[in-house]
Amino acid sequence: MPYRAMRESLNAVVDSLSDGILVTDKQGNIILYNRKAEAFLGIQGKAALGQPVQNHIGNSVLVSLITNTLALDLPYHTEEVCLIDLSDIRLRVHVNPVRNEDGLLIGSVTLLHDVSRLSAIDNIKANFLSMVSHQLKSPLSSTLLQTSILLDGIVGELNDKQMDLLQKVKNRIKGMVDLIRDILDVCFIEEGGYLKQIEHLDVAEILKRTVELIQPQAQDKNIALHVKIDDNLPVISGNRSSVEALFINLISNAIKYTPPGGKVNVEMGENAQNVQLEVTDTGIGVEDVDFPRIFDKFYRVRSDLTKNISGTGLGLSIVKSVVDAHYGTINIESKVGVGTIFTVLLPAKIEALRGNK
Q: Which of 189, 206, 230 is the last residue of a domain?
């Protein structure tokens, strides 16, 4: 088939897709897009070909996602995922780096999917879930406190059988309280609550305070929790409670899946104008088959090694949501029986958050 005919066929296929596609070269110049992308982004004809993305795309968040993907050029694969609002539509955006056979970065490809109807349904479900969770949180927390009082013997001594039954009740209630807390965290993030409370954050101070809260959890399992924080780290623009949730869930997850006597190392430093957090454990590791779903809501790895480990299945989902909300990246490396390494990069400056309120 002649080259021209092949090119016309390729363009016809790309234009027939229901999702928008936008491709750039390494310099951020637009080299390909289909009709759906034209409609979504308001591009007129083919005038944008060969032009920088910022010259033809008015949404600063989308421009930042593409330019950051190209500028960071990380040694491992990353995928930027974000929801953006354009006039009366909501788009789910996927931005991926494109590499040649030698692994060199040559550009980016962006997929634009209209989720307006799904978002409306999700909002109804999220509002209902948030309302129910708020209504349950207070009475369950009160019941948990009262159970603890009974176990402490403040209102009278208990025999061994009563203590055992009450301890099981307490554990069940605590599991429900943890689930509700995680659900409320997810609702807060998905509702865009982080956009309303943006401030300059000293992430080193937040991490130190988080480790102090988590240290008893590590001690209870006889796990050595080591922390190293570099001096003079840059501040980031973000939401304090969301970043705290990120740190708590990531470190708690490492402790949870590390057998007694193991180690969890937490390191924070600066990496190319980003704050980098690395959490390394000597835990049970993650099978390759579980990697694609590790950040899904309510997903938990099922195996003989994890069947007795309690959890809500929301911790890593919260971590990923917070990272995405702050335009960062997260990478996971793991080997079964050896351990897991989570690496998070948070940009030192996130002006797009302020501009998209």
A: 189
pLDDT at site 271: 87
Residues 217 and 106 in one domain: no
Say if residue 157 is exposed, middle or buried (CB neighbours under 10 Å; 0-12, 13-18, 19+): exposed
- What's the Cα-to-Cα distance from 105 to each of 50, 78, 99, 108, 248, rounded to whole Å? 18, 12, 4, 8, 34
CATH code of the domain in which 223 resides: 3.30.565.10
Q: What is the pLDDT of residue 139?
A: 79
- Non-local CB neighbours of 304 within 8 Å, separated by 6+ positions: none
pTM exceeds 0.85 for this model: no
Domain that residue 24 falls in: 3-114
Percent of the chain at pLDDT exceeding 90: 18
Do 330 and 216 reside in the same domain of the chain?
A: yes
Average pLDDT over residues 296-309: 64
Render pLDDT for 194-218 as a digit per residue (tens, 0 to 9).
Answer: 555 678 889 999 999 999 988 988 9
Last residue of a domain, one of 66, 88, 114: 114
Both 126 and 102 in one domain: the answer is no
Shared-domain flag, residues 55 and 175: no
SS (HEC) of 10-31: HHHHHHHCCCEEEEEECCCEEE
- The pLDDT of residue 357: 38
Give φ, ψ of 38 to 5 degrees: -55, -50
Instruction: Report the pLDDT averaged over residues 131-155.
Output: 76
Which two three-digit tokens encode residue 332? 């996971």
Q: How far apart are CA 61 and CA 67, in angstroms?
A: 10
- Cα→Cα distances 154→224, 248, 271, Å: 33, 31, 52
Q: Are 20 and 51 in a shared domain?
A: yes
Question: What's the structural domain count of the chain?
Answer: 3
Compute the average pLDDT of residues 23-47.
87
Q: Please name the amino acid found at residue 211.
A: V
Which amino acid belongs to residue 209?
A: R
